[in-house]
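Troubleshooting: if your tokenizer reports a length mismatch, compare your output against this known-good record of 245 residues.
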Amino acid sequence: MKRSISIQQPDIRAKIIGLILIAIGVALFFSNNTIYLKLSFALLLIGLLLIFMITEKTVPSKISKAQIEGNFNAFENITKSLNLAGSAVFIPKSNMLSEEKIFIPLEKKNNQIPELNDNIIFSTGADGKSLGMAVPPSGLKLLEEVEKETEYVNINSDNIEEQLQGFVGMNLINSIELKKSDDKLRLEITKPIFCQKNETMCRQYPCPTCSAILTAITRSKNKKIWISDVVHNGKKVEFSLKIGD
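Known-good structure output:
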């Protein structure tokens, strides 16, 4: 199958700009003006670099969005089929868990979280605690990329909001605000990318961006983070959170 070529591809754009700069450089080369000659050499050099440099091929944003939407539609169908009504609880790593998990209880009253390990997906309630489903947060891989710049393990709780600004710096969100009152948190996120704008899914299985932020908070606190409520107005999503043991 032939690879389609589009001017929107970064490597193609770089080559086109490079050719234009070389053309201008060649034209200036025949000038007797010393400044134009120096400018000519500079343009020729930059043009050659643009043509021969290695440019990373990026996946169009609409393709990434379609993949995320497909995954969330599938997960939404699963939660509906299982009649899961509870809100997500973000569970930190432990001796039993090699990575953070989200537990979605069957009932809205999700006060009893079962002991989880890497092999448990469905909790049947045999231990007398909540029935539900345990899955990795959708933003785990995204958080790994963010943590190449900022780590969220064992940081001072007073600095967590400042550290979370790294998500703004990476253009994943427009703004973020985290306020604490006793054992409760209020998290406000403006324009997370690829947001589904679905309050039910925000409450049960947040999008990768919000999920990465919530996982970062869980990682920094090393405690369970319970989603109590979610309000989404289309641009800003507000999470009401509770810090658990």
